[in-house]
Each structure stands twice: as C-alpha cells, then as structure tokens.
C-alpha cells in the first residue's frame, strides 16, 4: 500500500514538474521572442529544435524528482517506464500539436522523453 502510494505521488509529481517547467519555458520564450516561435501560425523549425532540448531538460528533472520520491524502495524501471509512458501518451494524444509539429518532431520528442526520464532516474539513483 505504501509503495503504491509512493509510486502514485512520484508519477503525479514527476508529471507536474515536467509539464510545469515546459510551460514556464514555452511562455517565457514566447513572451521574449514571439517571431522566433511562430510565423503565419506555424512553428519555426529553430523553435522546434529548441523545444526538443527544453523537453529533454524538463523530462530529466521530472525523472529525477520521481526517483527522489520513490528512492530505492521501488524498482526504478517501473516508475521510470510509467512516467515516460504517461508523458508520451499525453504528447501523442494532443492531435493539434501532432499536426503542428509534424510526425518527425513527434518521434524525436518521444525519444527525448524516454532519454530524459531515464537520465533523471540515473542521476538520482547512481
């Protein structure tokens, strides 16, 4: 019971950190340089690349936070895979963003999510 609670808290907190940091970075960049982000209602390629790096950092921090919550009590592969799975599922469920970013970018964002979460767990548990 306690282990399940820690897993749930770790997933909720990890997800919240990833999405919160991503939103903060996105809103800050959009406010500072709107022309860099989009032109004629389309995302610029340079911004999409920056977005991939931002997502990598955000997912790394979220993975680290999730690993911090669960600690060695729960197998890290379980929580890490669950967090990455939730993030990827949400990433692909937003059809507007899939259409806006393009298939290639979505695939890269999926890979970046898995790498970031795994790196966050590895940093915390090493």
UniProtKB/TrEMBL annotation:
- Record key words, sorted: Membrane, Transmembrane, Transmembrane helix
Q: Does the keyword Membrane apply?
A: yes
Does the UniProt entry include the keyword Transmembrane?
A: yes
Q: Membrane-spanning residues where?
A: 6-29, 49-67, 73-92, 104-123
Name-wise, this protein is DUF1761 domain-containing protein
């Amino acid at each position: 019971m306690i282990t399940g609670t820690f897993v749930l808290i770790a997933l909720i907190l990890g997800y919240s950190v990833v999405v919160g940091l991503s939103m903060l970075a996105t809103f800050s960049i959009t406010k500072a340089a709107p022309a860099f982000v989009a032109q004629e209602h389309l995302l610029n390629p340079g911004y999409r690349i920056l977005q991939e790096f931002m997502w990598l950092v955000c997912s790394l921090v979220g993975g680290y936070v999730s690993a911090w919550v669960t600690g060695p009590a729960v197998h890290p592969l379980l929580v890490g895979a669950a967090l990455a799975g939730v993030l990827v599922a949400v990433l692909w469920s937003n059809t507007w963003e899939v259409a806006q970013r393009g298939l290639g970018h979505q695939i890269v964002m999926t890979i970046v999510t898995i790498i970031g979460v795994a790196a966050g767990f590895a940093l915390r548990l090493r």
